[in-house]
Amino acid sequence: MESKTIILIFLLIVSLTIVTISVRVPLLPIIEDNHENPSNNDPLLLFDTSNYGKLQLNNGLAKTPQMGWNSWNFFACNINETVIKETADALLSTGLAKLGYTYVNIDDCWSASKRNSKGGLVPDPKTFPSGIKALADYIHEKGLKLGIYSDAGVFTCQVRPGSLYYENGDAELFASWGVDYLKYDNCYNLGIKPVKRYPPMREALSATGRMIFYSLSEWGVDDPALWAGKVGNSWRTTDDINDTWASMTTIADLNDKWASYAGPGGWNDPDMLEVGNGGMTYQEYRAHFSIWALMKAPLLIGCDVRNMTAETMEILGNEEVIAVNQDPLGIQGRKVFLEGADNCSQVWAGPLSGNRLVVAFWNRCQQAVIITAKWETLGLHPATSVSVRDLWEHEDVLGNVNGTFGVEVDSHDCKLYVFTPTSTLHVRM
Q1: Which of 48, 151, 180, 185 is catalytic?
Q2: Domains and CATH numbers, the chain
């Protein structure tokens, strides 16, 4: 009888111990994705990292998305060495360089219309009379980096010489000039598949011994996210952007599909920023910048930084939004909730380091709406409490929010917040 009592007491103690054991539950579960119907996502199936870092080119570059400036969106072919130098100066004088915008990238039209007698590329003597080496030296003296442009075809898109079949010589030339970045386009490609045309330049760049960021401008035609991570540091997932609301929103949706393939070393590229070029409103540009930052897209300024408005500088210079883009966790945020006419009320979100979450409330409707995110929509455990910081107003909004968070958003605007956990969650087993 006594032994039975002892056994019963022992079993009781064990059972009580098991009942009171608590385990930490991740506030932001990161498992896999269900893009087919984001409004009905299982909260534990939001932020797919199944391809995270699996393919990335390990050349020591692109630990975070590239930041800088590119000449095409504003200047197109109307470039010269003076414009490039003055842009570098403006990046410094405005403080943008200190915020991370360090690549000064020359796009198409820098070269002469023909190669020289030895088969080498030649800078256009009218617009770049000092040569690219002298320009690179000027850029480097400013503490910045120089990017250049070529094409994985026989011609560039503006019918200058391309680098197809000239990869080794061109890569050596770029390295000798001190180039730090190559944007490699997709025109006049002879119908050869991109998966065959882009690796030779990667190998040629690597053989130079110089660390050169390799940006594939393949336009998403052959789903480069599926293969380009072994080839370049970023890859275009879409056609060219233009300075319109329709173009920007369409491209954001297309890029969202490939979220699981981005990560340190290689990034999805929905094309360069149009902020400040005049085709969209302040609210639309703010949405553009917010979503590009959340998507871990390259932040390549496309306006004339020598003549920016205060509103343009306010957007491009927002340190808190830039920090979202440059967060070391490096997980691309994505669309997690849609409602309203044509799904125009949207919530986009993504994990950040420190167990935080960035959340964008994006109004693509024609009128102001209230957008609400429920915790299950965001993949948060229902008992989690968070503090909420507004990244555009630069202020803490609420201290202990639980269950849902909603906000009114003007038409075509975007509110951007960081949620930081304020409670340690334990679950009884």
Answers
A1: 185
A2: 67-326 (3.20.20.70), 333-421 (2.60.40.1180)
